[in-house]
């Protein structure tokens, strides 16, 4: 298998257990539908489109959780190459630096190493997607008004993982034979956020040449 899963499961903090959808729920059915479309070899631009009659918030929720799972796995495979010494700043090349801010420990944008930033990011997303007030799983419970804003913030920060991996660690991804998997995941992510205008176009600038 291209991705070295043995490496991933040796990580005590980087890798999180996969977030699963409950069988029998609407979101589980949507997830199965999305995965079936992906595996069928359809054009990724078509795969991300909202299925007729489905809720856009459910569709976004399914993809946010799935992207969290897959990007977490991608970073987990190469996290041994992303260390305090090799990546003392969370960045995307010389031009882009990403600082961490949340509502608890880091109330002001704070400079962190890439491993620290990734750890904070994955903990933060895991907390949000497990919060029933933001990602409700019970039938009939509505999404909060700010749901898409929260998802925009999650996806914007997940995009920064791609930026860091592509610019600073792609040689490691290639050496593990995982570049095809990472590229496909990135394309899927990119078409999804473009389809629903979920990330400010300025955030995409670090990888704009690659996109072209």
Automatic annotation (TrEMBL):
SMART domains noted in UniProt: Mob1_phocein
SUPFAM superfamilies: Mob1/phocein
Gene3D superfamilies assigned: MOB kinase activator
Residues involved in Zn(2+) binding: 82, 87, 164, 169
UniProt keyword terms in alphabetical order: Kinase, Metal-binding, Transferase, Zinc
Keyword Cell inner membrane: no
Single GO MF annotation: kinase activity
InterPro entries: MOB_kinase_act_fam, MOB_kinase_act_sf
UniProt-listed PANTHER family: MPS ONE BINDER KINASE ACTIVATOR-LIKE MOB (PTHR22599)
Name of this protein: MOB3C kinase
Source species of the chain: Grallaria varia (variegated antpitta)
